[in-house]
Amino acid sequence: MWREQFDRYWRGLLLSGIGIAAIAWLAATGRLGWYVHPRYFWFTVTLCAIAAVALCAAVPALRRTPRESAAIDAVHDADVDHHHSPGPEPARPARAALMRVLPVIGGVLLIASTAAALLVAPPTTLSVATAQQRQVNTGGGPAGDAAAAGEDADHDARDWALLLRQGGGALVEARTAEFIGFVLPGADGSSDIFFAARFVVSCCAVDAQPLGVPVLSPDWQADHSEGSWVAVEGVFVANPDVTSDQPVVLRPFTITPIDEPNDPYVY
């Protein structure tokens, strides 16, 4: 009976409780933005609170269920004993017992691994490997008025990346830029160019897309590791490598290593 109750009810409740606790912890520590767009913070937290109330209400009901089931089973067993003479209890093969225990062991391992992943392991931001899987500058939409307007100093890596996609980079050539991003190698593995990139989040981390600016810095690997954060200042120029996929690149005045910002994404 206890195994059936665990499989049917308690495993799901425990997993739900772990998920609720993880969301509440991320919201309390200001790290929910690593996974959800800020416009959905209140929506996420509100649903989390509703789920917590529903979970608390379900526990007393489930605690009554085993007692009611036990009473029904007792009546059934008494009726069976009244109509049938007792006989020797059939032997339980060890294999059958193991098959009954295995689902419980699997459920416990699932709960333990979920708790370790959501509550014990520190939350992390998206990595360079994720950016390489999703390919830089393949999403984000066209540059709009917001990206084209304003002072150059107000533009971030996303704005410049979007502008670079318009007219072969003609909109940005000879303009100066200053922004931050993480070091992302180019798809061709060039030792002369890396992308100073940022993840752009539209809804949550699942749909995040990397956008970045190609920076012309020969042998950049000697000074900057993949995934490290840098502040870049420079001017956009025509790429001296006419065979490159990047017709316009940023020739940096300075590339300064920095710590990862508290809010590494742009929205």
Give a written overview of the molecule.
With 267 residues, the chain is of the alpha+beta class. The protein has 2 domains: 2-120, no CATH class; 128-258, OB fold (Dihydrolipoamide Acetyltransferase, E2P) (Beta Barrel), CATH 2.40.50. The chain is 43% helix and 18% strand. It contains 6 helices and 5 strands. Strands 3-2-1-4-5 form a 5-stranded antiparallel sheet. Strand 1 (176-185) and strand 2 form a beta hairpin. The two termini are 50 Å apart.
Give the topology.
Elements: H1 2-28, H2 41-83, H3 94-120, H4 128-134, H5 145-148, H6 157-164, E1 176-185, E2 193-200, E3 209-216, E4 229-238, E5 248-258
Antiparallel strand pairs: 1-2, 1-4, 2-3, 4-5
Low-confidence stretches: 71-78
- Overall number of strands: 5
Number of domains: 2
Strand order across the largest sheet: 3-2-1-4-5
Structural class: alpha+beta
Strand content: 15-25%
The averaged pLDDT comes out at 80
CATH fold name of the largest domain: OB fold (Dihydrolipoamide Acetyltransferase, E2P)
Termini separation? 50 Å
CA radius of gyration is 29 Å
CATH architectural grouping of the largest domain: Beta Barrel
- Helicity range: 40-55%
Largest sheet: 5 strands, antiparallel
- Judging from the principal axes of the Cα atoms, what is the shape? elongated
In short:
The protein is of the alpha+beta class and about 270 residues long. Helices cover about 45% and strands about 20% of the residues.
Features:
267 residues, alpha+beta, OB fold (Dihydrolipoamide Acetyltransferase, E2P), 5-stranded antiparallel sheet, 6 helices, elongated
